[in-house]
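User: Fold this one for me? It's CoA-transferase family III.
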Amino acid sequence: MLLSMSLVLWISVVFCSCNDTSIKRDKLFDIPKTCFINLFSLNRSMTSFDSNDELATAHLLWTTASLPEEYLGRLRLTPHPDCTVNSSFKLAEAAQTSIGLSALSAALFHDLRTGVKQDVSVDARLAVLEFRSESFYTLDRKAPGPIWDQIAGLYKTKDGRVRIHTNFPHHRHGILDLLKIPNTPAVTKAQVQDALLQWTSQDFERQAGEARMCAFALRSFEEWDQHPHAQALVGTPPVVIKRIGDAPRRQIEEGVQPSKHALEGIRVLDLSRVLAGPVAGRTLAAHGADDLLVTSPLLPALPDLDVDTSRGKRTTQLDLTHTEDSEKLKSLARDADVFLQAYRPGALEVKGFGVDELMKMEGKRKHGIVCANLCAWGWDGPWKDRRGFDSLVQTSTGFNVAEGQAYSAYLASIGQAADPEPRPFPMQALDHTAGYLLAFGINAALCKTITEGGSWEVQVSLAAVGQWIRSLGKVSPEEAFGKGKPLPSSSFPQHEEIQRLSVDWPQSNQLHGRSRTMTALRHAAVLSRTPVREGRVEEGEPGAPLVLDSSQATW
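Assistant: Here's what I get for CoA-transferase family III.
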């Protein structure tokens, strides 16, 4: 059966390698080196996986990463996962595939270091729940606070609708300035709505962009496909992995003993914020990496998100406007295996931490570095420098309109006809998918530091991930909303399903007073030989830092 052209168009992973053919590689990676590998010319008939096989999507991403095809047989995913969540898009497939690949690639890295093979399994329902983990944790037996600012959301304009994102104080202030509304806690959605009715959607989107604020017009797929940025993204894969420089291969000692966790000993310097980037770092930490999350004391935080996404990490703060702190970060980078950042393109380059600069920072590390970069809109096109978040990308690229149309069709099918209303995904699916795919790309690059040597860059954007999810196809309205299982409420006391699937996370330090305890969903990936870390401090695992300055800025 041939793979649909839409799926071929988007499911691809780019690898650019230098022309050095003198490097010997492990037999697992005995695949000719190319400058550009993609799947635009491939179809399902070229693979042993049927188009209805739950591994078909994973197979395409895995093999185009030049990872050994036979290893994919060690991954177990849930067949026919669509009914595990109520969406007309294949979010469950995206969830279990991205989580599964992030775990399988960690297992492969462990295999390359130790020779120990293992199996990986992912339950689709737990995967989709984990895609909303920030709503399903407790701290001191209490639910997290509200994630959304009180005026954030979708509003009508003169000619359509626009979504504003105001979770950060400076973004809220900037949006209200544009609307000429005083920024006070008493501002209501009704006031914002009245003000936005004086604007057209695209005029406000444009003005917000010029003011470096976060607001985007609601578009259908048809409208988005005509947008210059959508056209600039055509052909962009969800994960880009490219070789950026020469370096010796990572040396593996003979007779090395298996590690307790797959990524044990890997140092991740994590400069990520909000959700997608932190999810990637949290995933690496779950597989045993020493993830040091570095944030700035000058930037606003989102504590109710940070508590969840920092589980298993160490946290510290550095002010890069101070020479001393900048030098500390350079010292950390010299010995890091992975440099993970989620700021807008170029934001760290001006501070001396671009890809070229990072490759030149040499300390005790004798092999190449993996530079992992995440952003909202990608590295090309008119919006490449714009700020963006999951909800905004969903809105502007057509998902909210399409999901609303599907839900309206479902209501009509059961005799409850209603005009279509924009409908967001039941979780921040772009953020979470991007985070796990970024972790997959990082692990694949780490494998290449063993088999090929070199330094590598991994790029993931929310917009390209959205294209990939769209390419997976849709579920019928009746299947999506009639049979699809809704996510539990995030209210407290927690739903029985969440309680049953959660584990305790003790606080990893007591520098800030009394010890606190959180509960959080367990990781959806199960590895047969190197289980993920889940806060078992009595066994030497890190707990949950709960604050952004739990550790010193050292390895």
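One thing worth pointing out: DSSP finds 19 helices and 17 strands in the chain.
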